[in-house]
């Protein structure tokens, strides 16, 4: 993802679920300080005009982000925005602290507004959209209620858990009605771990923006990709939104990584 000053931003995802001593093993606690954050779990900035760069040429622009697949530059306030995939398996790993319903719904899939040096707190905290709080992760002494440090940034939008946001695009075209201008589209690939609840996502949502910040509630913009009325297993979904792009005419393009389809959405009065 490019900014206006010749920089490119690269996500380097965390190779573990929550930086446990033994990844995804029940009761395993977090590695103190999570040294993996030195080289993963954040956003790195590189120059676009410098050839033959290596990992060491990059600047760690932001940290504490488990895995960011969707990211885009907001030209209204000249700021990076990202969509984080939240951590998994609260009940599976700590069944004494979380029931299955809590684990299916939490933590939020978060949209963050990122400035250089920001820390979103992963793996030490997660954002609980139901409580509206940053919660201390169980791997680091949390119990589902203890709040995490206030040093970590808050999300600007907190979506339901486990929807898998794979695309983020700020709409700068003129084809769609005025209310869409400079707002954000998010492609949700769909969940795999909301059992015993039904799986969710498999749609594209819209978030209105004003002056570079969210200005209203998000809404489902395009649905029906799964092809079934209720998804209990991801394999049931016939299509899953993945990437977003804006055409020169202002049309919105959506990619699907199940059947390799590309959808075009255009507006005609």
Description:
The longest helix has 6 residues, at 100-105. Helix content is 4%, strand content 32%. The chain has 2 helices and 18 strands. The chain has 269 residues and is mainly beta. The chain has a single domain (64-265), classed as TolB, C-terminal domain (Neuraminidase, 6 Propeller), CATH 2.120.10. The relative contact order is 0.12. It is globular and about 55 Å long. The model has no long low-confidence stretch (mean pLDDT 95). It has helices at residues 90-93, 100-105; strands spanning 7-12, 42-47, 59-63, 68-74, 79-84, 109-114, 125-128, 133-136, 157-159, 165-170, 184-188, 203-207, 209-210, 213-214, 219-222, 241-246, 252-256, 262-265. It has a 4-stranded antiparallel β-sheet with strand order 4-5-6-9, with no helix packed on it. It has a 4-stranded antiparallel β-sheet with strand order 10-11-12-15, with no helix packed on it.
In short:
The chain is 4% helix and 32% strand.
